[in-house]
């Protein structure tokens, strides 16, 4: 008896594409100051989940400390990661400043919230050696 095939929930399907793209993102506030409290981190996660939903992207995991946040996003190939990052940072900065003005102003001044730079790493894929072996095994029979 052969084992039953279970579909992989990480593999998504579009009209013309099958994909599983994950990115690990790290954002830091300007000058790496530590404005985040548990309440602000919770609100930041809610805001970023809403932005991801607008991009038809899933925020798989979110966490942070006083001076940075980590995100794991599952995104379709039609989404430019740099555009997603711009929206995540822009919307969250605007909303957090509106909702926590006194606290944020103690740590950050002017219109700055996030550092302009960020960390992004692809993740969740098979090692290149496995992919190479798979492709080699797809050769047409002679």
From TrEMBL:
It holds the Pfam family Y1_Tnp. Residues 18-138 form the Transposase IS200-like domain. Transmembrane segments: none annotated. It comes from the Bacteria. InterPro entries: Transposase_17, Transposase_17_sf. SUPFAM superfamilies: Transposase IS200-like. This is IS200/IS605 family transposase. The gene is tnpA.
